[in-house]
Amino acid sequence: MTTLSLATKRAENYPEKQGEWYCGFSYTPLIGLGYEPGVHRRDASSIIRVDGLYYVYYTRSVGPHFGRGVGDGTEHKIFPWDYADIYFATSADGMVWEEQGPAVARGEPGSFDARTVCTPDVLEHAGKYYLVYQTQSDKEPYASGRSERVGLAISDSPRGPWRKIETPILTRMDDGEWFGKSDNYNSGLFGGITHDPSLFFYQGQWWLYYKCGSTKEMQGGKHKFAGPDTRWGVAMSDKPEGPYTHSEFNPITNSGHETMLWHYKGGIAALLNRDGPESDTIQWAPDGINFSIMAHVHSTPQAAGAYRPASSDGHPLDGIRWGMCHLNQQGSQWNYMVRFDVDPRHSHSIAMGYAKSTIGEI
To answer: Which residues form a coiled coil (predicted)?
Structure first.
């Protein structure tokens, strides 16, 4: 009789390493959105192509930031995405970009988006364009996280003008009830944060994926999962402006820092990076909710936005084959963007033929 260790038993259930979902990523500098002293460009949206041009939307701010150590942050810029606006850039080839200016700016004093608008994502559907983004009001200290919301702007053109919805489309739930039950998951510091929205039209409804998290201090010095407690949720609506109803299955992941998702074969695929026990995996949910690990991947991009092709059903990696993410420069926090590509050297199922087809398309 064979005796198996727990490690061996786990290994028998791992996804096939060289299967069609497996990949690594390579990185290339961009012209036009590279390092610029004093300027932060980060949190790339999904990339769309309209009339022969690629469009990307991103967080842009200027000047130094000081972290939470400066106090409640009422006046000081705490993070690179604090006191930010959403800008956009265009490109004919995906490598050389031209910054076009602001797409969505901060709101008027007293509004829910007065302090910052950041971490956008873009969706084209039925001839209209939808920008979802994270907001912060000027009514409460930034560090509390209690006034973070999700905003929406709509346009008939990827260049705007963008019409803001005057109220948030997603707000934090009460302390301890973010996931529909009183488990104190998001009580305390940074409780109920609402980050990284990503909008899909799926199964005849609008699906809004998002990230929230907690700190060790909120769990009596312990994380519920390995590493930072970061998870994703989803909310659904019959209209893009809401109202949205949180899924009863939330949280739908136990890992992943920034949201990164795409359509595949009637379901939703996702890249989970950085945080949690299932970090650096690609997962797939046939119903958009119940995700299974399809591959453990490596060199994953941070705060990435992938090119959204018209169809991503041909291959599991079609929805993530290239895009943009941000990197660190000279000790500053993630203040410029580069291009990422699925690296064919680490994916036997696509090999060099896939790389050539990718280059030909862009």
So the answer is: none
